[in-house]
């Protein structure tokens, strides 16, 4: 398998603080590699090094078989592009945003027009050319940012939490696009995520990151198939918990994740197990609701984060669960910090590793 | 009171009749101040970019220095320039005292701190990721800087307008190095010096006519810039409204 990019003993420090510490990583041509880790684990720094926007403090970076000289990376930057986590757009039209990189490459106008149209179709924004980019919704803006990167057809596409702040509809469109460009155009993709669900569906390989180190790299089966010691440290990743599973006679299992919180899952497991619950799969209510869902917990709201059309809440039920709801629901329910709420999710929504 | 009223009436007569002396002074003022602002843009904008985009020791001191210079009294600057360019001064050999050249240089120096200070604020207000975004899309360092400047263009234009307003309305520099006290004659007569001279000569009509022009120019420049900034939004509004208007007309006809 051809290696398109390679990091050898790469360290990046800001002052005395090492954000990436002596890491080795190979990126294979045509693959989707996911960097998974909590905030501050060094994912974005690795992506910026691979985009040649940051130079490593020490270590070597190879790109397409050649050592990269970070004093001048213009040549390499043409072949690698990064989509930032926080959508950044030029204050102009959608067309000018998507066309920017092609103009920098001195592509003829007629071809730019055609390519921009194709890229916008791919992200389902056809006819948006003349719209002011910054006046679009958050999800549409992120789709423009993706189209702007895709239109360049670079060897390496780097995505920093591409769907982190998006509603399920926009996130779905982007996941479809990422999958499509990888399969059809054979674009090599490296994406940072802390969405375990996304990490289980999109990439071919995953690299677990923690405190500036890559603690484990492998295929999905290799990493998720066995209970990784490192996975247990991923409690900081939204809704990932480790505990002890006990199989029940009903064919399900109960995973005790500590502090008196027991989660029922559909998989039959015995012994140590890690579980993940997608924040979008959790129903938030003011009081316990009667339903077929097996997991109902009462707790308090400890954190509220506004994400454009969505709101992310942390609910402490003994363990801290992240719940994602629409802003409309949030406002209608009149929620605030320390409010007592119930969270509900089905046993089948709790994924077991 | 009758004198004042007579002066105002005479002023309008002079404007309407196209008095060559009045229009000569107006065009000279526009030429001097316009050239001075262009010079200030040429050296002020790159300096503003450098200060805003680079991290270096003493950056905040330099920013404070230019901020303070924005308020420098024009008479003080005029005096400094007079001492430099007068025959006995270090640049006296150039022989440009009481010429349009020294007025343009003086006004350019006067407005440079405005161009730099407001320019730096505008550039610093741009999303810092724009630079990295341009680079990751394939831009060179220089192209990325141009992208940042484009994002800051409204603020940069605002600094240029403020510079022009300050240049055309200042009196100290033109008075001291342009000949107001030494005799540059008509070659260096601009709106502000001419207003002051006509009042001393009790030619109220001329003074009022020039005053009207001075205010009108400042208003006109600001209006043009305001309209130019709003133009894309207006075009977008008309473009979006057009189908609705068309539909309404069609419905009315029915």
Short description:
The complex is a heterodimer of chains A (353) and B (254). By secondary structure, chain A is of the alpha+beta class.
Structural class by secondary-structure content of chain B = mainly alpha
Mean pLDDT of chain B, nearest integer? 88
Global outline of chain A: globular
Q: Largest interface: which pair?
A: A-B, 23 and 18 residues
Main sheet strand line-up of chain A? 6-7-8-3-9-10
Number of domains of chain A: 2
Distance between the termini of chain B: 63 Å
CATH class type of the largest domain in chain A: Alpha Beta
CATH architecture of the largest domain in chain A: 3-Layer(aba) Sandwich
Question: What oligomeric state is this?
Answer: heterodimer
**By CATH's scheme, which homologous superfamily of chain B applies?**
MetI-like
Instruction: Specify the helix fraction band of chain A.
Output: 10-25%
What's the total count of β strands of chain B? 0
Give the domain tally of chain B: 1
- Ranges of chain A with pLDDT <50 over ≥5 residues? none
Distance between the termini of chain A: 28 Å
Number of helices of chain A: 9
Tell me the series of helices and strands of chain A, N- to C-terminal: EEEHEEHEHHHEHEHEEHEEEEEEEEHEE
Order of helices and strands of chain B: HHHHHHHHHHH
């Amino acid at each position: 398998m051809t290696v398109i990019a390679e990091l050898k003993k790469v360290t990046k420090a800001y002052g005395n603080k090492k954000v990436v510490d002596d890491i080795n990583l190979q990126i294979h041509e045509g693959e989707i590699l996911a960097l998974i880790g909590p905030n501050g684990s060094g994912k974005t720094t690795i992506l910026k090094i691979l985009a040649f926007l940051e130079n490593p403090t020490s270590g070597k970076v190879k790109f397409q078989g050649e050592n990269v000289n970070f004093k001048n990376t213009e040549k390499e930057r043409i072949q690698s592009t990064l989509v930032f986590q926080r959508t950044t757009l030029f204050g102009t039209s959608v067309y000018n945003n998507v066309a920017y990189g092609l103009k920098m490459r001195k592509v003829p106008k007629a071809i730019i027009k055609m390519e921009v149209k194709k890229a916008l179709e791919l992200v389902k924004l056809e006819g948006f050319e003349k719209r002011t980019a910054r006046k679009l919704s958050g999800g549409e803006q992120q789709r423009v940012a993706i189209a702007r990167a895709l239109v360049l057809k670079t060897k390496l596409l780097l995505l920093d939490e591409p769907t982190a702040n998006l509603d399920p509809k926009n996130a779905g469109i982007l996941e479809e696009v990422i999958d499509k460009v990888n399969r059809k155009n054979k674009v090599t993709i490296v994406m940072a995520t802390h969405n375990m669900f996304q990490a289980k569906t999109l990439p071919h390989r995953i690299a677990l990151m923690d405190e500036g180190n890559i603690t484990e790299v492998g295929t999905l089966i290799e990493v998720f198939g066995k209970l990784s010691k490192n996975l247990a440290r991923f409690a900081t990743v939204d809704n990932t918990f480790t505990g002890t599973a006990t199989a029940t006679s009903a064919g399900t299992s109960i995973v005790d994740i500590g502090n008196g919180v027991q989660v029922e899952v559909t998989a039959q497991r015995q012994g140590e197990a890690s579980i993940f619950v997608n924040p979008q799969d959790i129903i938030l209510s003011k009081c316990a609701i009667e339903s077929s869902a097996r997991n109902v917990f009462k707790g308090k709201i400890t954190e509220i984060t506004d994400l454009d059309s969505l709101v992310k809440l942390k609910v402490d039920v003994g363990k801290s669960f992240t719940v994602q709801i629409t802003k409309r629901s949030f406002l209608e329910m009149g929620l605030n910090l320390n409010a007592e709420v119930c969270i509900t999710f089905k046993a089948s929504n709790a994924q077991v590793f | 009171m009758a004198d004042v009223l007579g002066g105002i009436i005479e002023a309008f007569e002079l404007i309407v009749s196209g008095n060559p002396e009045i229009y000569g002074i107006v065009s000279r003022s526009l030429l001097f101040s316009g050239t001075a602002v262009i010079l200030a843009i040429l050296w002020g904008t790159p300096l503003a970019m450098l200060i805003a985009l680079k991290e270096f020791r003493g950056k905040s001191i330099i920013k404070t220095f230019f901020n303070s210079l924005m308020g420098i009294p024009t008479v003080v600057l005029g005096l400094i320039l007079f001492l430099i360019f007068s025959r006995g001064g270090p640049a006296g050999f150039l022989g440009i005292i009481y010429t349009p050249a020294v007025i343009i240089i003086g006004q350019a120096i006067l407005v440079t701190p405005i161009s730099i200070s407001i320019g730096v604020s505008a550039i610093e207000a741009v999303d810092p990721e724009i630079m990295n975004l341009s680079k990751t899309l394939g831009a060179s360092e220089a192209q990325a800087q141009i992208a940042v400047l484009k994002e800051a263009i409204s603020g940069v234009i605002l600094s240029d307008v403020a510079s022009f307003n300050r240049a055309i309305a200042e009196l100290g520099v033109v008075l001291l190095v342009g000949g107001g006290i030494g005799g540059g004659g008509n070659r260096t007569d601009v709106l502000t010096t001419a207003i002051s001279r006509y009042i001393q000569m009790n030619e109220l009509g001329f003074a009022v006519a020039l005053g009207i022009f001075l205010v009108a120019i400042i208003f006109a420049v600001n209006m043009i810039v305001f309209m130019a900034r709003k133009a894309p939004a207006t075009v977008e509004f008309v473009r979006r409204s057009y189908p609705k208007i068309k539909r309404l007309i069609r419905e009315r006809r029915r």
